[in-house]
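From the thread on structure requests for the teaching lab: each student submitted one protein with a one-line request. Submission from student K.M.:

"Model Neurogenic locus Notch -like from Paramuricea clavata, tokens only."
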Amino acid sequence: MNIVFVVMFTLRILVLFLQLHLATAEESIYVDYESNPDHPFPVIRWDVPSLKTNIIAQSRELTYQFCGLACAEHRFCVAFNYQQQSEWNEWNCQLTNTTDHKFNNNASKKERVWTFIKDNADRRQVASCRGEVNECHNGGTMIWDPVKPFNCLCEKGYEGEICEKDIDECSHALANECDINANCTNTPGSYNCQCHVGWTGNGKVCS
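Reply posted by the TA:
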């Protein structure tokens, strides 16, 4: 019985330590937007109430960094509202598609427990449109772009805004590896080389 009590007590102390450590770490990482607007998660406003409009997603996250990553992974998210101290069964992370929110300055102190933060995380480094429909064609990968909703990283042999265009490697000698004594035939996403009549080889080397 004493052993069980000691184990439970030790675990409780460990949990309290981790909670305190996370809270302290969060407070030390918060960066004011005006002093460092290029920080991945700079604070726009402190002590604000919860968002009422333009909420595109809500979740519960352990730290504001996780809330920021959730924003970075969402196609239309540009900022998020985070509440550090909240009940375990309440949302504490609100994602939004605009930074232009009119907060109620007359809200009570009990309501003003959120922090409004801009998301400057490089989406291309964070995620490749996870959870979104891939709108890129021909095996292209949809990646985040800071200027437009998304961009496409095309597979070899394709180009275009959504990788819809097949590259004709045969239209330019420098775009293919066919021997000078071979015919180049364009194929979807690639090309074939075939030696001329009277020549032998794999098409890339003919003799």
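TA comment: The radius of gyration is 27 Å. Residues 2-29 form the longest helix (28 residues).
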